[in-house]
Amino acid sequence: MDIHLKKLYEKLLASYMTEPKEDHLYSAQQLSKWFIEKRVSPEEVINVHIGSVKRMVPELPREVKATLEMLLEVMVGYGVAYQEREQLMSRQRELEDEIEVAAGLQQTLLPEATPSLPGVDIGVISVASKQMSGDYYNFVDHGMQQLGVGIADIVGKGIPAALCMSMIKYTMDRLDAKSLSPGEILRDLNTIVERNVLPSMFITMIYGVYDSLNHQFRYATAGHEPGLIYSAREDCFTSLETKGMVLGVLRDNEYPEYVADLEPNDAIILFTDGVTEARVDGKFIERETIKSMIRDHIHLPAQQAVEAIHQKLYEMTNYIMRDDQTILMIKRVG
Q1: Considering the domain 112-332, what is its CATH architecture?
Q2: At 51, phi and psi to the nearest 5?
Q3: CA distances from 13 to 47, 59, 184, 192, 301 (A)
Q4: What are residue 96's phi and psi, to 5 degrees?
Q5: Averaged pLDDT for residues 153-161
Q6: Where in the chain is the domain with CATH 1.10.1240.30?
Q7: Beta-strand (E) ranges in the chain?
Q8: Nearest one of 179, 182, 332 to 256, comparing CA atoms
Q9: How far is CA 55 from the centre of its chain?
Q10: How far apart are CA 216 and CA 230, in angstroms?
Q11: How would you class 152 by CB atoms within 10 Å of its CB: exposed for 0-12, middle for 13-18, buried for 19 or more?
Q12: Average pLDDT for residues 41-62, to the nearest whole number?
């Protein structure tokens, strides 16, 4: 214990033993806050107390001395537990700081804004269920009015997920000058992920290239949640094909490609499984319900539409998010 605090306590104790007053008890409460602030253990306080009492009252009855000694022994065990708790709390604060840094890193990995593409309206929303997210999306300019769109779901959370995100972003960013097909891009990503992540981690992903000249969406998937294509003329939905294996399990995987043609006001809606696995009244939300929510908001600009869909889903699940949710919409407007 700090010598200054020790003298303050001894002086206060002596005053209270001589003439007990309420002011002394109030001062003791304030002094206890200083003890906590200085991380003084309980047994230190008891030890100072016993030493002070013995000096002020040399002829203490044997029974009283015995009770004080017992109290000190009890507080020694309590003090050890207190110190362990303080160490755990300190470690918890360090972990929270690390998670805050990692969460900030995640935000820098996401695009600052949705890109513009002639005749196309794009909107995206990504909301983490906790402080950190396992969802990721990105855009890649393929030139010739072609835009690459990737959306991924990392099985895992926290700092490992943030590291996986940085790996995916770096790989996608270096594709800017390359004219790889969606299947080749997923194959490259799979090789990198398989070599660099823990065996317990893997990633689902869909990558597609939207050609705004021909309004075609060429895509490949890696075990990702099937997206939807909305036909405005027929007012109906069809699911995207999903036949590729998740990233990071086997090194030599092939990812078949598919093509979707969009007419005016048609839309492609991509999402992570946090959307389809949302629970309403204890059950997974029906895919038809998701389609109905999209249909109700498809007339809005793409960004407003995805935000409204997410808000509706959030309300239906009684404002409980069990998993990260990302919704991305590409709508042909011309």
Answers
A1: 4-Layer Sandwich (3.60)
A2: -60, -40
A3: 13, 17, 79, 68, 73
A4: -65, -40
A5: 75
A6: 3-103
A7: 120-127, 135-143, 146-154, 203-211, 216-222, 228-231, 236-239, 258-261, 267-271, 279-280, 283-284, 325-332
A8: 182
A9: 58
A10: 14
A11: buried
A12: 81
Give the whole-angstrom CA distance, residue 239 versus residue 276.
13
| Distance of alpha carbon 269 from alpha carbon 328, whole angstroms | 6
| Cα gap 239→4, rounded to integer Å | 74
Q: Which residue has the tokens 């990692």?
A: 102
List the one residue out of 306, 290, 303, 182 whose CA is nearest residue 239: 290
Task: Quote the pLDDT of residue 54.
Answer: 83
For residue 155, the model assigns a pLDDT of: 81
CB distance 129 to 324 below 8 Å: yes
| pTM value surpassing 0.70 | yes
Q: Which residues contact 292 (CB under 8 A, 6 or more apart)?
A: none
Distance CA 133, CA 160 (A): 11
With 0-12 / 13-18 / 19 or more C-beta atoms within 10 angstroms meaning exposed / middle / buried, residue 158 is middle
Amino acid, single-letter form, for residue 288: E
What topology is assigned to 3-103 in CATH?
1.10.1240
Q: Which amino acid, 223?
A: G
Angle separating helix axes 42-56 and 62-109, nearest 10 degrees: 150
Q: Where in the chain is the domain with CATH 3.60.40.10?
A: 112-332
Which pLDDT tens digit goes with each residue over 236-286?
999 999 889 999 888 889 999 999 999 999 999 999 999 999 998 889 999
From the list 201, 216, 296, the residue with the least C-alpha distance to 247 is 201
Structure tokens at 26: 């109030």
Q: Which of 169, 184, 313, 289 is nearest to 228 (CA)?
A: 289
**Which structure tokens are listed for 68?**
């004080």
Q: Which of 15-24, 163-172, 181-190 is modeled with the greatest confidence?
A: 181-190
Task: Please spell the DSSP secondary structure of 160-201, one letter per residue.
Answer: HHHHHHHHHHHHHHTTTT----HHHHHHHHHHHHHHHS-TT-
